[in-house]
Specification:
This protein has 168 residues and is α/β, with parallel strands linked by helices. The chain has a single domain, classed as MoaB/Mog-like domain (Molybdenum Cofactor Biosythetic Enzyme, Chain A, 3-Layer(aba) Sandwich). The chain has seven helices and six strands; from the N terminus they run βααβαβαβαββαα. The chain has a six-stranded mixed β-sheet, with helices on both faces. A hairpin with a 2-residue loop joins strand 5 and strand 6.
Length: 168
C-alpha cells in the first residue's frame, strides 16, 4: 500500500484566450506538474481562464484566500496587448518577491535574448506564494529549473515553519 504525503498545496492557473475556448491544449501545466513533482505539491486547483485581468485576479484572490501554499500562473507575461497576467497579479499581491523573476530571467538569458522581454512577477498574498511563468512549455521548464530549489523554503517561511535563512 502506498501512502502519499504532500507537504504543500498548489494551484495552476493558465491564462489563454484560445485555451479557455478549447482551441489550444495547455501543455505548460503538465510541465509544471512534472518539474515540481519532487517538491511534494498536491495540486488542488487547476483552471484555464481567458487573458482577462479581472478573471485572473479573481481566481488568484479566491485560491489564495482558500490557503493554497503556491499558485503558479502560465501565460500572459509577454508584450502582446492581451498579455495582462502581471498586472492582474500585481493587483492582488501584498508583497513582491522580485528575486524569483530575476532568477528566471537570468537563466532564460543564457538561452535566448528574448527572455528579457518577460514581464513576469512574483510575490505573496497572505501566506500564498504566487509566481508568473511564461506560456511556452520549454520556457516554463527553464524557469522552474532556476527557482525550484528555493520554493520549499519560501512556502515554509510563509507558513511560519522556517525561521532561519542563514547557511551554517
Amino acid at each position: 500500500m502506498i501512502i502519499w504525503v504532500f507537504m504543500f498545496t498548489g494551484g495552476i492557473l493558465t491564462a489563454s484566450d484560445k485555451g479557455s475556448k478549447g482551441e489550444r491544449q495547455d501543455e505548460s501545466s503538465q510541465v509544471i506538474r512534472e518539474c515540481l513533482a519532487p517538491l511534494g505539491i498536491h495540486w488542488l486547483k487547476y483552471e484555464i481562464v481567458p487573458d482577462e485581468r479581472q478573471a485572473i485576479s479573481d481566481k488568484l484572490r479566491e485560491w489564495s484566500d482558500e490557503g493554497l501554499d503556491i499558485i503558479l500562473t502560465t501565460g500572459g507575461t509577454g508584450l502582446s496587448p492581451r498579455d495582462v497576467t502581471p498586472e492582474a497579479t500585481l493587483a492582488v499581491l501584498d508583497r513582491a518577491v522580485p528575486g524569483i523573476t530575476e532568477a528566471m530571467r537570468a537563466e532564460g538569458l543564457k538561452k535566448t535574448s528574448l527572455a528579457m522581454l518577460s514581464r513576469a512577477v512574483a510575490g505573496t498574498r497572505q501566506n500564498t506564494l504566487i509566481v508568473n511563468l511564461p506560456g511556452s512549455p520549454k520556457a516554463v521548464a527553464e524557469c522552474l529549473e532556476a527557482i525550484s530549489s528555493a520554493l520549499p523554503h519560501a512556502m515554509e517561511t510563509l507558513r511560519g515553519e522556517a525561521t532561519e535563512c542563514a547557511r551554517k
